[in-house]
Amino acid sequence: MLRNHQQLRDIRKRCVRAKQELSTNLYHRLKWVMFVESRILEVDSKLVMYHESIKRLQRQLEVISQIHSAPNVYLSAVAEVVRRRTFSQAFLIWANNVASQLCAVHSEEVARRKVFQSQFEGHFLSSLFRGLEDSPPPFATQAPPLFDSELPKLTLDDIEKLRSDLPDLALSISVPDLSQITQFFLNRSITNLKSDMGHPPAASIEERIVEAVSAAGLSSNLDPALLQPADGSQSMSANTTHPISSDRGFESETDTEEFEKVGQSPSEITKDETELRSNLQSQFNKINCAVDQALGDLRCDMGQLRQWVLCERTELEFLLSKLSSVWNEANERLSQEYELRQAAERREVDLENRMKAIVEENEKLRSRVEELESELAAERVTVQEVTTRHKEEIEAITSRYKLYSQSIDRSCHVHEKMEGCEMIERSEHNTVVNRIREEMLAQHMVALENERGKFNCEVEKVKLRADAERQVLFNETVRRIVLDKDRQLDELRAREAELNSELAKQKDIIVQLDTTIRESDPDSLQQRVLELEMEKSRHLAEIQILKGATGTTPPRSVSPSSSVVILNEVASSSSSGSRDVATSPEPSPRKSRSVKDKLTSSTNTLIKSRKVKIDSCNPGDNVLVAWDYDLSAYTIVQESSTLFVLHCESLKLLGLNETSPKRTLYTVGEVVDKEYCRARKRDNRYHVPEGSKFYRVKVKSLPS
């Protein structure tokens, strides 16, 4: 015992030393993790700052690129304005000409049809010619609205001036070629005018177009500047090379301004142009210098930024390599969390099964309600049948009443013929007949009201009875489900609280005993430690079972006489060598490992020192007897797939009790005898499945 006590003290010292080393190691590792996380935060903030600076440089580059492309964009915009003005003027002239001609043709055709229809309408031959009343639909009889009216007044002369003033950018100025489109519009307009007028002079084409537009009433939709005729030289040049090149006339509003421009001296104009050209050239050179300098600075900044990013990337890779160990520990924690999550999922599956049961019960209630509704419908059908039967009876009574009244009328008529002189008797007879008629009518109405009241009462009773039964069934089901659920939750919570309180008490007792471990008797102290560890493992197992919502299986009292059958075929092999029939299957290392984990260190020491055998169960072997929560019985710990159950007669010899709440979880004993048995019934004393085979072992306590 002293040697065992010293071994325990050495093991305790080694455990304390291992805990201290583990805490130191964990401290350094966590410190390194915090350092790495802080470095990652710093790098992240730097990356955000550099990202913002790159975005700012990108915006500046966009501004510089816009400044760099400003001359080309300006020249392309000038060319586009000239192209659009040329196209819009030619298109509007052509469209207005077409609209005026089509409007005249349409109105002439409509007038001719109206004149003919006024002459032909009403004639007897009009039925032979169908469809003469149709009229042509209007097509392109209105001029299109004015567009491109807000464009600047620029012409080809302005483009030529830009080319002469800016020879470096002359190649980038693309003059649009609209001669084909404008020639197409003008040729169509000239052809139409020639066909209308016969032989108009070439110089008066625009004047004829203006007159045609004014005659059609379309001049209000056009720009007044488009309706002003140009001189002969300009119109001829427009028909040959540039159709709409007379836009320079729109720049001056009056003739006096044109005379003032013409009156200026050519030397002044040339001087102004040279000064303007020199100023533009100097500004353009300054802009080019600024752009080149900005691009150089930007390239330098980008090179430095690229080098810094490469350095930071290498540092990040180094930090990521350092994080691999931390990542492994995190994976272990994740595996534990995954196991907890699986337990929660199993709990959710259990709850889902309960919910399915509740839903099935609700479906049954719903089917019961449907049956009641069908019964109610049948009751309604019977009520309708009763109503129809009463109606038939009322109709029969009415028909009998009519026959009776007719017979009375006939008898009265006969009496009148036979007894014409008896006026007094006839008046009395009439009064009697009227009285009988009133009585029959009153009886008929009373019977009808009685039947109607009975029918209404029966209908109301059937409705109330069906509604009451439906509500009672639904309320009873809901109440039963809620009470069952609340009861289970209260039991589980109370059991968990009780086990937690007991576990806290046992921990306090262990701490108190730990302080007095050196002052007590070693033998009694070792026995007390074993008992406390047994109780601790028992409480932990109960808490785990309670958290899994499975609960311990209560002991069931069955008839022990016929639930287990002893097999004689294995009795001869009870005294075999190191391994018998029970140990012939392959051992289950997983089960034995789970059992060993629940044992204390002293018990594991006994197993390792071969004082307690777990690979054989022969008479004379020292074995470990442990409590099995699944079977609610004591079993023999063996590395075998076959079950070894303690015999009921050995409970008193070992001082064990299965029904006590504070039972002993495990003890050591010597094997006396064993029997190979088979469970014949489902409910047996050992709580094993029906048909399963196992060993029933008799064990006695060890000699002191």
UniProtKB/TrEMBL annotation:
A GO molecular function assigned to this protein is:
molecular adaptor activity
Q: What is the organism of origin for this protein?
A: Lygus hesperus
The UniProt regions of compositional bias labelled Polar residues, in chain numbering, are 231-244
For this entry, list what GO says about its biological process.
autophagosome assembly; autophagy of mitochondrion; glycophagy; piecemeal microautophagy of the nucleus; reticulophagy; ribophagy
So which domain of life are we looking at?
A: Eukaryota
Q: What keywords tag this UniProt record?
A: Autophagy, Coiled coil
Query: Boundaries of each Autophagy-related protein 11 C-terminal domain copy?
Result: 592-700
Name under which the protein is recorded:
Autophagy-related protein 11 C-terminal domain-containing protein
GO CC terms on record?
Atg1/ULK1 kinase complex; phagophore assembly site membrane
As recorded in UniProt, coiled-coil segments are 341-389, 482-509
> A Pfam family this protein belongs to?
ATG11
Disordered: where is this region? 224-276, 575-600
Q: Does the keyword Coiled coil apply?
A: yes
